[in-house]
Structures are given as structure tokens and as C-alpha cells.
Amino acid sequence: MRVVTLLAVGLLALVPSLARADEVTPPPVPANIQVPAGNNAFFVGHAVGTQNYICLPCPNPITPLAMCPASGFAFALFTPQATLFEDADEQVITHFFSPNPFENGTIRATWRDSRDTSTVWAQVNASSSDPAFVAPGAIPWLLLQVVGAQEGPTGGDALTATTFVQRPKTSGGVAPSTCNSSLDVGKEAFVPYTADYFFYKAAESDAEDRASK
Q: What 8-state DSSP symbol labels residue 66?
């Protein structure tokens, strides 16, 4: 009897999670960062962290010539460092840069599930600083496409079906304007930011998930 009760409690605990998956509604976004048709949002995490920059001569492997200021020096993003929370303020995902094992170690934006350590890597497809959407002094909104996914060491797969990640609702995070000369090279800046990250998966994955339950 005790086993049955525990099983019932466990199943009830899953209900809010499944309901959230059905209720994820992304906000309006600029046309160039809309997710392609056939992909549905299944999770949203609210990020709090920093955008971490280092001052380098420009151009460099991170900053192309077209983005270099006249000074010849610019802050380059070397990693974000953020924690994603659910609405209930539960930590669910960590976000950073790391080598993608599916691209011979290419450094990519990374999200790792805090519970089962499943991980996805993604590349930027498009960005927008459209003032109709993006707040003044905020980093751009982004659309990223997954280019690598890995289960956790015990088979966890909370994130592995992800196809796209969308970053709207940003605030802060813009690099300071204090990288202007060779004397500034090597200086680091850790700039607080917040954002929402919407995780999408192929629509057929939703159908498969429902069929397996």
C-alpha cells in the first residue's frame, strides 16, 4: 500500500511539469529571430548572471574587423555565466560557453540541466537590437540553433530534444566603453544581465512524448 501511495505522489508531482510544457508562450519577437515553423517551445528559464568580457586588440578571433571600433581595441565576450530559474524560483539550468564535442571542441553557448546534467550546445543564427523590442542598454535578442546534445551520465535527457534556443527580454549585459588602448588589454568586465531563454523542440517530438506516456 505504501508503494502505491508513493507512486501516486510521484505521478502527481509530474503534473505541474507537464502542464508547464503545454503553457509555454514565447513573446512577440523581431521577424529575424523567430523560430522556424515545426518547432514548439517546451520550456522557459529566467536567467540571472553576467556577460563576461575581456579587452583585446581588434580584430581578433572573437571580434571581426567589421565590428572593430576606430581605436583598434574592443571588449570581447569570453563567456556568459548565468543560472536559469523556473517561475517558482527553482534553479533548473546553468548557462556558459564550453567546447562542443560534436564539433571537434568548437566553443559554443552551452546549457546544462541542473538535475540530470543533460547538455546542449548552440550557435547564433540571428540577433536583433530592434528598439521596438530591445530595451536601451540591453544586449541583443538572439536565435540560436542547437549543434550538439548529450545525455547526462545516468541517461538524463531533459534538454536533448532541444532544436532552438531563443533569448528575448534582455536587460543589461552590454560591455563598458573602457577598452580604448593597449593599456587596457587584458582587463575583464563582468556585467550583470537578465534574460529569458525559451527552449524549442521539433513538433513531432511532442507527439512522440505524448504517445510514450
A: G
